[in-house]
């Protein structure tokens, strides 16, 4: 296959609505180089007003909501590209290539397996990625060049035979029969509400991270990654905590694991460092909270410390 280091991105996400942006926040925060393409037909942009998305007790207008989620993916480290994806094609093969490093923060000299993808946009630009997440509710024509007829089903409508993307093509975690291809939308019974779509995007984003970690050599029981922050006050004895994390890691390595001990140590220490990064100080929490309010206020058009929003009554 093409050397993974030669790919433009680790993950390319087709669709910049709640589904795709949610997936991008997870992959971007993990450290995977991620691009999100946003120029398709968005079902949410056909809504008049969003009133059932958790965290907005008065609802939120669609333009503001889109500004917020796009701001979020960029803050998470993703590239946001306003272009329509026209085709996704396979590149490379299933051979194993040595990778000089790991954008996910794991140890170097890991092995990456599987093909990659070439993503071509309406403007004629092409980028390559190790993984692709389809997150566009309407259609899936851009996946046709992959050549899997199982992706599509036919149906009769008004005397005509039509073809549509099979919403059950992917499994519940978004994985498909094509290595490195995930589908977060369209899927059955999920993309009918924005908040459900965002949840599915997060789930599929975590699937991509898990598979990335599996390729880097993490045993299956250790491949899943959890993204949360904890107060540093809970980390009373850091040295003891690190020893506990190492012991927990070792206890979850299967007896039949054939990785060299040196590689296991590298993965163990990378895992310990990630666990340490989950703990943040009160000062860090306060600073991030202040910045969070400022970013939100920018989109609402008010000062971060303004009481105008709460004092204003209904018109």
From TrEMBL:
Cited Gene3D superfamilies: FAD/NAD(P)-binding domain
SUPFAM superfamilies in UniProt: FAD/NAD(P)-binding domain
Keyword check for Flavoprotein: yes
Keyword terms: Flavoprotein, Oxidoreductase
Record's keyword annotation contains Glycoprotein: no
Any GO MF annotation of the entry: oxidoreductase activity
Sequence ranges assigned to domain FAD-binding in this UniProt record: 8-43
Protein name: Thioredoxin reductase
Naturally occurring in which organism (per UniProt): Haloferax sulfurifontis
